[in-house]
Amino acid sequence: MKLTLPTIPDALREQHASKGWPMALLGSVLLFVSGLLSWSYDASILGDISISFWPATLQLFAMILGAVGILLALIHKGPLQGLGNWFDSALALRALGTGSLLFAVYSLTAIAYEAGGLVNINPGGWLALVGALVLTIGARFVPQRTLRSFAKAKANSTLEIVVIVILMALVLFGAAYVLGQDDPWVFVGFLLMAGVAAMALARAGLFTWLGHISQRHRKVLTLAAFAVAFLFPFTQDGSDANMSIATQVLIFAATAIGLNIVVGLAGLLDLGYIAFLGSGAYVAAMMSNAASATIGWKPPFLVVMLIGACVAATLGLIIGSPTLRVSGDYLAIVTLAFGEIFRLSMFNLDGNNGPDLTNGPNGIPGIPDLNLFGFDFGKPHTIAGFTLGRFSNYYFVLLLLIGFIILVFTRLNNSRIGRGWVAIREDERAAEAMGVNTFGLKLLGFAVGAFLAGLAGTIKAHQDTAVSPDQYIFLESAFLLSAVVLGGMGTVAGVLVGATILKLLPEKLRFFSEYRLLLFGLLLVVMMRVRPEGLIASKRRQLEFHEDDEELASEVQQDHLIDASAEAAR
């Protein structure tokens, strides 16, 4: 029997591995403890981080990162070691260490900038930097383990439902907290902390597990998500400022989901999609009770919504019929031209160069608030002791609208029509050879997407109280497309996340307004390099970008089996 001795590098690796876990745990503890100490001498900056044992803003964020690190370390070795067979704590600790170090450097930079120098940083801030550095070094030597597949795990319905409820509650309180932060340094710090924690948990495999349980409890997840969205206005204490941002996000998201049909499912690049939103808005404005409204017929608003959506769908058919014979860059150029034609037409329909419909560049101001079934959307209302302002009223209507749009999108995506769109996106010639009516389906995609955008536009006109051609420029179409690409083409959750990011960041980072386009460009470049399938990608697109990932292919197959079983049960 031949004995082989470990080589020197292997021996050193084992020696470092034995020290890696204690260092990672120590760094996490130091990071957590740093949040209990004072970070700055100046009490007037960053939400007062000068008090010990009363953590606020950056101190609290450091404690959260430290707590995540302690949890991951105990999963690797400790009382939670059993979970280490399912979650990769080694990769998670490495991601957490790097991210925590970045967060610590950012925090010290913020304190130095606001307080006027590094001399104003108290020991708590330096301890956070030391803890993050120790965690980063220790995590590099924590060995990985062979993990079990979640597809083979036994389901515990009660535990899974509790996890979904807790996750949705964290989303609700996190959204309320971040919108309540007026300091841009604190806002970015929260996003950085949340991003680092999410990346670490994703590396551990938590989101993969959440994907499996969401497949098994789709109805519970959907109900919990809408419950969180419904309860959000009650967390804002009647603040119209934050609810105004929320309504803009919902309008933007509803429009982006319609664009997702065209781009994400059918694979048609549309650079003039904002025109469909504008057409719905102009129809609602022209039929409103505004003094400058140009149409004398004033039907009920529900009829106006249908008319505005149908006008937008008709425009989709008009632009689609002669142009969908082309594809790729040529289609993009044509749709870009259509968006500009719509904007210039709104300028010229002023009674001088054409019919008097839009009042030209002046637009239609003074659009009154909606009044549905005696409910005045312009007045605040008190419900269960909570005051809901004007934007909260529109928020609930938009929530119903986006629920309807999501229902339409998911039904179409799971139908024969949706499969036809996907076949066209993957290979139009092959789809046509298999008998798919490619031109008809592409035209239908344009019409349905435009219809949904028109619905959102009719509400937008009343919520904005005015419409003008300058609201519907090419840049807005580019932002809509960016939301679809950033979030994940072909998915609902991805588009919602992308729309939220692209609408929320400019509102909270106004000091960065001159460099907003640069920021978005860098964000998209990073996404294309790091995660080209989007933040929340469909399994199909993940396979396209990661063809060699056997584990992902196994997960997709398992998800298909779960879907088939659920369909058979129904």
UniProtKB/TrEMBL annotation:
Principal localisation: membrane
Keyword field: Cell membrane, Membrane, Transmembrane, Transmembrane helix
InterPro entries: ABC_transp_permease (IPR001851), LivM-like (IPR043428)
Cellular location(s): Cell membrane
Topological relation to the membrane, as annotated: Multi-pass membrane protein
Transmembrane segments: 21-41, 53-75, 95-113, 125-143, 155-179, 185-208, 220-239, 245-266, 273-295, 301-318, 330-349, 394-412, 439-459, 479-502, 514-530
Cell membrane found in the keyword field: yes
Domain of life: Bacteria
A Pfam short name: BPD_transp_2
Protein name: Branched-chain amino acid ABC transporter permease
Species for this entry: Nostocoides veronense
Phylogenetic lineage: Bacteria, Bacillati, Actinomycetota, Actinomycetes, Micrococcales
